[in-house]
Amino acid sequence: MTNAPFAPLPPRSYPPLEDLGLIGDGAGAALVCRDGSIPWMCVPRFDSPPIFAALLDDGRGGAFRIDMTGAREARQEYVPDTGVLITEIRGETGRIRITDLMTLNRGADLDEDALASRRELVRIVQVVDGSAELLVSIAPFGRSAPVPNDGDLEWDITTRDGALALRSTASLAGAATRIARTAGEELHLVLSWGTRAGRRHLRRPVTELREQTEATWRRWARGIAYEGPAEALVRRSALTLKMLDHFENGSIVAAPTTSLPEAIGGPRNWDYRYTWIRDAAFSVYAFHRIGLTAESRSFLGWVLDAVGRDGHPKVLYDIDGGTPAAEVEDRLLEGYRGSAPVRWGNGAADQRQHDVYGEILDCAWQWHRQGGRLSPELWRRLRGLIDAAAGAWRTPDHGIWEIRAEGRVFTYSAALCHVALDRGARIAEAEGLPCDADGWRREAERIRRAILDEAWDEEMGSLTEHVGDGGSLDASLLALPLRRVIPAGHPRMVATTAAIAERLGAGDGLLYRYLPDESPDGLEGHEGAFLLCSFWMVDNLAGQGRLDEAHALFESLCDRASPLGLMPEQIDPGSGAFLGNHPQAFSHVGLISSAINLVRREADPRGADPAVADSV
Questions:
Q1: Is the peptide bond before 205 cis (omega within 30 degrees of 0)?
Q2: Cys bridge to 440: 192, 210, 269, 421, which one at CB 3.0-4.6 A?
Q3: What pLDDT band is residue 612 in, cutting at 50, 70 and 90?
Q4: CB contact at 8 A, 51 and 164
Q5: 523 occurs within a structural domain
């Protein structure tokens, strides 16, 4: 392990989100706390009921804990370029090292054809020096206590969704066992699920599982093509996004958690373990910009299959491209630090959000630019989405922030309809495909003019959140240059950038999505600053040639990453604490894209806006 600093152990109940590391296997995920516990784990799928949920209720949720008697401080880091996490804990009698991983199959390439998950969690505990008394406890959420299977080295756990099997190199005494170890000795724990749980012939030595998992991650990470500012964070962001990617089918979840609050004690607690077209498209765009092209092909195929089932795009889908579970509130769990309600499912699945047309067509454009060819059937589907965008941009929807109130004509949604028309025309002209490309371009220009004229508020000196009926400031306007709708240097975009920085600023470069006292979702209370919006501000400053300011803001945002290089959805402006579901794909996408934009602007200060160079 490197010289990552030790720090006092976090609180046992509801640790700060900054003290949680992500591990995953391209199908499900878990969060490992710096104290050696696993308080959150969803397998075999990201959207499965959790196996451990102490993060949402310390008393009822259950966790997989490895405690060391007399522990005082700990540190964490990833094995470089992998999803393997190391936690070191130091106490009165010695120091232990816990290596956590979710195993991957030997030889898996992590591309769209590979089923990489072995459906196993491996925990390797080594006493580095001195001695240690360990307390190993496993208390699954809503499941029965472990029962022995063929002796006290193997235990079965019955679940409503299948079975778990826990095996160990030390005798276990049920749900909690004390084990003594001295320097150089190890304890191996393997938790298996699904059909693999009882199939002994598929078991391999733990050291072999770790080696092949690390090798598989490193093989994938070799494809990352980036040199520039915050290089280590960019690579870790790419690996984090990959751990949110379903290796088998190409869907990408927004976050691995549900109901982590946007303000402690507040009601804005949502289930993010699903695939939003918008979030996944942003992720694919980020992958593409650092040389990882297989993900865009895989996601495009997945999303078009999902759209084809219903004939029109939905806002979000489950892992298989189906409708997510209906949103329900869990009255039994108290929520993270008392932040109720805990929600399962997401009601936004029933909303109309017109930006999905542009997200899908932009993915198709990126895929085309990588050399992908569109079959007649694929083009027929895309053409239908483009025509739908042409008819939808003047109609109300619920917008990028998914307001739970009456729909409006949101500027961002109209802008992404422009993207659908523009990218559709580009694809058609490049491949000689049948359509009215000139008509699409004319309609795209009408949208652009409507945004500049009808969304402009002369008194405010800024574009606003709505087209045609004014409205407030909205930080999503910062995305218009990134999507090649309005250049960053356009006078009205420059004015809008200044207005957002002044009126939505939360201090130290952080931005609110909208004015805290003008929340559009109808819920009480406030939320934190939204990290992605600050990265969008970096891109606008770079596009306006204000490189020193852009670099300074970018560096300050990078400094907010956790010691593991992970980023949440939001930041509490007062304390700097992480808020919202964690880690958040959007935030890591913003970091990657801003890094690339700064590199390109430095290379060509007078060139085209770097944020849109990939679309030109």
A1: no
A2: 421
A3: very low
A4: yes
A5: yes
d(Cα 577, Cα 34) in Å, to the nearest integer? 16
Asked if residue 285 and residue 173 are part of one domain, the reply reads no
Q: How far is CA 107 from CA 103, 213, 572, in A?
A: 12, 9, 42
The count of other CB atoms within 10 Å of the CB of residue 589 is 26
Q: Residue 376 region, left (φ>0) first, then alpha (ψ -120 to 50), else beta?
A: alpha
Question: What's the confidence (pLDDT) of residue 106?
Answer: 60
pLDDT higher at 170 or 449: 449
Query: Number of structural domains, the chain?
Result: 2
Local confidence band at 150 (pLDDT 50, 70, 90 cut-offs): low
- In this structure, what are the phi and psi dihedrals at residue 190, rounded to the nearest 5 degrees? -130, 120
Please, what sign has the CA dihedral across residues 313, 302, 441, 353? positive
Q: What is the pLDDT of residues 579-592, one digit of tens each?
A: 999 999 999 999 99
Instruction: Give me the helix-helix angle, 376-392 and 294-310, nearest 10°.
Output: 70
Phi, psi of 324 (to 5 degrees): -60, 160
Nearest of 477, 473, 463, 457 to residue 413 by alpha carbon: 477
Q: How confident is the model at residue 172 (pLDDT cuts 50, 70, 90)?
A: confident
Contact call for residues 363 and 299 (beta carbons, < 8 A): yes
**pLDDT score for 611:** 40
Share of the chain above pLDDT 70, in %: 91
Ramachandran angles phi, psi of 501, nearest 5°: -60, -40
3-state secondary structure at position 322: coil
How many CB atoms are closer than 10 A to CB 76?
Answer: 25
Number of other residues whose CB lies within 10 A of the CB of residue 177: 16
Whether pLDDT at 546 is above 80: yes
Same domain, 211 and 286: no
Q: Looking at the structure, do residues 184 and 282 belong to the same domain, yes or no?
A: no
Q: What is the DSSP string of 81-93?
A: TSS-EEEEEEESS
The secondary structure of 371-399 as a DSSP string is T----HHHHHHHHHHHHHHHHHTTS-B-T
As a whole number, the mean pLDDT across the chain is: 90
Please report the pLDDT score of residue 616 as a whole number.
Answer: 29
Phi, psi of 366 (to 5 degrees): -60, -40
Confidence of residue 531 (pLDDT cuts 50, 70, 90): very high
Instruction: State the average pLDDT over residues 371-397.
Output: 91
- Which H/E stretch holds residue 134? strand 117-138
Distance (Å, whole) CA 174 – CA 146: 6
Residue 488 and residue 360 in one domain: yes
214 and 351 housed in the same domain: no
Is the separation of the CB atoms in 179 and 170 below 8 Å? Answer: yes
Phi-psi label, residue 143: left if phi above 0, alpha if psi -120 to 50, beta otherwise: beta
The domain that holds 509 is classified in CATH as 1.50.10.10
Collect all residues with Cβ–Cβ distance below 8 Å to 211 and sequence separation of at least 6.
none
Domain that holds residue 60: 7-221
Residues 179 and 253 in one domain: no
Model confidence over 47-95: pLDDT tens digits? 999 999 999 999 999 999 999 999 999 999 999 999 999 999 999 999 9
Radius of gyration of the chain (CA): 24
Half-sphere exposure of 77 (CA within 13 A, CB side): 12
